[in-house]
Amino acid sequence: MSGNHNEKLEFLGDSVISLVMSNYLYKKCKDEGELTMMRAKLVCKQTLAEFASALNLETRMKFGKGALNTNARNNEKVLEDAFEAYIGAVFLDSDENFLEVMDFMKPLLEPKVEKLLLEKNNAQQNDPSKPIIGPQDVPLMTLPLEDPINKLQTWSQRRSFGLPKYNLVENKEVENKEVEKKHIQPKFTFEVVINGITYPPGTARNKSEAKKLAATNALKLIDDTVKIIK
């Protein structure tokens, strides 16, 4: 597709969304374990796609000819990226006013958070002998494998290292030779830095997958180091 794209806005929106959700949950949740678990459910692809649909973004997106036959408008990953780009644009249009972005996102966040808190309370009431376990109570490598970014963040915060920082180290276009008609597609490489240590990078065709691979590589290295020390 020629013309403008939303990659820079997605990058900005991803950070703004994380900050808005963290600030909102800080006022709602009781402890760090609950905060981390709730945020993981809010920043996932499914939830962000739901928010995009609530704003009717699927009807306002423009696609190249190659995407028109793939039902891209209903693809969760596409909707997730669209929502990130949209929030990045809202942030810029508000003269980078974080409070205005919070007010904009509150009608989306409030019912979702209330629903998650209700589900959590119901689960605990149904079986009070089994309290809800937070990430701080779970060994590193027993956390869900499908969420390496959240798992790495939990590991880092439990050790007071702060949030992992994901740096874009490469963004290039490569020729796809796996299809009959050759076309150019993006390729992203991210590395993650924790407490001043840079871990092996991850490379993928979109930013989210590249970050997940970088987080996975860091977790593998951390786990191998723990095994060696033991």
From TrEMBL:
CDD domains, per database record: DSRM_RNAse_III_family, RIBOc
Pfam families: dsrm, Ribonucleas_3_3
GO terms, molecular function: double-stranded RNA binding; ribonuclease III activity
SMART domains: DSRM (SM00358), RIBOc (SM00535)
RNase III domain segment(s): 1-95
GO annotation terms (biological process): regulation of gene expression; RNA processing
Domain DRBM: 147-224
InterPro entries: dsRBD_dom, RNase_III_dom, RNase_III_sf
Tagged with keyword Hydrolase: yes
Keyword vocabulary terms for this entry: Endonuclease, Hydrolase, Nuclease, RNA-binding
Keyword set includes Zinc: no
Superkingdom of source: Eukaryota
PANTHER family with a match to the protein in the record: RIBONUCLEASE 3, RIBONUCLEASE III
Protein name according to UniProt: 8171_t:CDS:1
Originating organism: Funneliformis geosporum
